[in-house]
């Protein structure tokens, strides 16, 4: 946690910093040793270009300590990032540029079991949902299978074995799906996963 955040949070009466960790693995080890007495976890979320450590960390925290509220701070504030964080188990989401007052408000809401997303990001989420309601180009059933497996982290060879298809066929169907969705890379797919209903 950055020193500025520590100062803001610890200035609140009754708040005590239990620890600060630079890597998710260090945090998980600390929680395994002593998860008691932690009312709120503030975490930085990495950019969402591929299934990244930040999202995986949130999922691990949600699965192992579902009662532990997590407030995410990120320099990457768009609908995709916010949606991924909330779906992975975060209780709140703030830009790193948030004011101390907004940070304290978000911390209070998340620590009490609520959800907090600032108004500008809520507006971005609403626009994203409106775009989703307009619909995306329809994918064939086979293309949907490919996209769902891709989002689950399966490679072309694994998909071919699972689906009983040639790897070249899987590759062609994946390219066709990407073309329909207007994307070029796996990173693009993960950025728009909140718009898809294939999982």
From TrEMBL:
Biological process annotations from GO: phosphorelay signal transduction system; regulation of DNA-templated transcription
Domain (HTH luxR-type) ranges: 132-197
Any one Gene Ontology molecular-function term assigned to this protein's record: DNA binding
UniProt entry keywords in alphabetical sequence: DNA-binding, Phosphoprotein
SMART domains registered for this protein in UniProt: HTH_LUXR
Domain Response regulatory: 1-111
Modification 4-aspartylphosphate, positions: 44
InterPro entries, A to Z: CheY-like_superfamily, NreC/VraR/RcsB-like_REC, Sig_transdc_resp-reg_C-effctor, Sig_transdc_resp-reg_receiver, Tscrpt_reg_LuxR_C, WalR-like
PANTHER family (UniProt xref): TRANSCRIPTIONAL REGULATORY PROTEIN RCSB (PTHR43214:SF17), TWO-COMPONENT RESPONSE REGULATOR (PTHR43214)
Protein name, UniProt field: Transcriptional regulatory protein RcsB
């Amino acid at each position: 946690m950055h020193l500025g955040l520590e100062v803001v949070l610890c200035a609140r009466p009754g708040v005590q910093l239990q620890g600060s960790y630079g890597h998710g693995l260090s945090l998980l080890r600390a929680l395994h040793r002593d998860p008691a007495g932690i009312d709120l976890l503030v975490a930085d979320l990495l950019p969402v270009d591929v299934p990244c450590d930040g999202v995986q960390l949130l999922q691990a925290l949600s699965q192992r300590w579902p009662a532990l509220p997590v407030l995410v701070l990120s320099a990457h504030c768009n609908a995709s990032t916010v949606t991924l964080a909330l779906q992975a188990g975060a209780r709140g989401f703030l830009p790193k540029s948030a004011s101390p007052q907004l940070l304290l408000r978000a911390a209070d809401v998340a620590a009490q079991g609520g959800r907090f997303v600032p108004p500008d990001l809520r507006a971005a989420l609403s626009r994203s949902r409106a775009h989703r309601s307009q619909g995306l180009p329809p994918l064939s059933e086979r293309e949907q299978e490919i996209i769902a497996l891709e989002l689950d982290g399966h490679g072309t060879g694994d998909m071919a074995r699972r689906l009983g298809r040639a790897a070249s066929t899987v590759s062609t169907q994946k390219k066709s799906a990407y073309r329909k969705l207007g994307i070029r890379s796996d990173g693009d797919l993960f950025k728009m996963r909140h718009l898809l209903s294939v999982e």
